[in-house]
Amino acid sequence: MACFVVSAAAAIGVGAAKYIVKHHEKKMALKGEEPKEYKFGSDVKWSKKLGYLEMALWGGSAVLAIEHLLHGEVSFVPPFLTAAGEGPEAVSEMLTEMGTVGVTMLAAIVTAWAIGVLIVDFFKFKKHKAQQAPEAK
Q1: CA 71 – CA 110 distance, rounded (Å)
Q2: CA atoms within 13 A on the CB side of 65
Q3: pTM
Q4: For residue range 34-66, what is the model confidence (pLDDT) as tens digits?
Q5: How does DSSP assign 79-92, residue by residue?
């Protein structure tokens, strides 16, 4: 009924974190504190990685919102969530769905993002180390 709200709320939080990290990265760049040596995961800035997570969360939330709209679980007039106007039992069911399905979907999205970030960083790190190693013949 409203599981997309969990992803949307998380996307707002990730967006705020992204801008804080981006501000910190700019401050470090102005001070000249860029990493001199390649470290694992330093090729792509964290603000960009968080941007990917934010896009995934907003995209998933939008698709779910459209699906709920097509099934009549969301409307354009207050209360926007139709379960909110059907009584306390429906609200309880809606909150239960948000706590189970919504949180599970959020965990799946974040896990997929984290695995993707680790894989990409690992291969970039491995490629960088191979380029730095002296050629042995």
Answers
A1: 26
A2: 15
A3: 0.81
A4: 655 556 666 778 899 999 999 999 999 999 889
A5: SSBGGGGS-HHHHH
